[in-house]
Design a protein that fits this description.
By secondary structure, the protein is mainly α. It folds into 2 domains: 18-106, no CATH class; 132-250, Outer Surface Protein A, domain 3 (Alpha-Beta Complex). The chain contains 10 helices and 6 strands. Strands 5-1-6 form a 3-stranded antiparallel sheet. Strand 3 (185-192) and strand 4 form a beta hairpin. Helix 2 (41-60) crosses helix 3 (71-81) and helix 4 runs antiparallel to helix 5. The longest helix has 22 residues, at 2-23.
């Protein structure tokens, strides 16, 4: 029984070793003997998977190529060093590549901001897959915007819903910002339909979102009592602006 268990463990370890090496396009593995054929199917399979992985990463990061002269070379290095995870959706490999660049390459502040931007967009996409029902419900509420916005100044029982798909990011340079933005600058990424939008919020806007992150949905009347530093007109203008861009919905 013991010898049988040891044999199974050794076989499992051997298969795992093959999989890890094949995932980085290495077919020269100890204990693995390829049949001598003019065209080896194992080599074709491994090389085909590697080519597909390189193409996907290159396509996902195409907008970064102007800021990263060695991007294609780095993608190749990464693909040889880090095995592709089983059942990877593409976004996981992208995140691993961003982490790998952060650990192994010397990045400028501008390049680091580019990575922050891409990481934020991937996070929104992943949140969308994990919270599809919440996203669909919020988009349905957004469809009522034109009908309910007229009640903003008179209906304190109006409820405010915060977009569930959002990510905060902090940027140190203006490579992705205009010349008027303060540095460092805090930006929020959020999903509207199939699009990912961004906004730089003033301190009052950040305070409003922070309150809604504690409790959403919440009545406008309750929000007024919690944000006592803002008068009704200022709060109304702020809520109206955020609803126009799709960060807040009425209910």
């Amino acid at each position: 029984m013991k010898n049988h268990k040891m044999a199974i463990d050794e076989y499992r370890e051997q298969i795992s070793n093959y999989a890890k090496n094949f995932a980085v396009a290495n077919t020269s593995v100890k204990g693995f003997e390829k049949r001598k054929r003019p065209v080896n199917p194992i080599d074709m399979f491994v090389e085909g998977n590697l080519a597909k992985r390189l193409w996907k990463l290159s396509d996902q990061f195409v907008f970064m190529k102007e800021s990263f002269e060695d991007l294609n070379e780095w993608i190749g290095e990464f693909s040889k060093a880090v095995p592709l995870e089983a059942y990877d959706t593409g976004s996981l490999d992208s995140i691993q590549f961003l982490d790998w660049m952060t650990r192994n390459k010397t990045l400028s502040a501008e390049q680091f901001d580019m990575l922050t931007c891409h990481r934020s967009r991937i996070a929104i996409e992943n949140f969308g897959r994990e919270n599809r029902i919440a996203h669909v419900r919020f988009q349905d509420l957004l469809s009522n915007h034109d009908r309910l916005k007229s009640e903003l100044g008179s209906n304190d029982s109006l409820s405010l819903h915060l977009n569930p798909l959002r990510v905060w990011a902090r940027f140190q340079t203006r490579i992705l910002l205009d010349d008027e933005a303060d540095l460092p600058s805090t930006m929020i990424f959020f999903a509207v339909g199939i699009d990912i939008r961004t906004a730089i919020l003033e301190p009052t806007g950040q305070e409003l979102v922070a309150e809604l992150e504690v409790e959403s949905p919440t009545r406008l009347s309750r929000l007024k009592s919690r944000l006592c530093d803002m008068d009704s007109d200022e709060l109304g203008d702020l809520v109206r602006e955020m609803s126009e861009i799709g960060l807040i919905a009425f209910g």
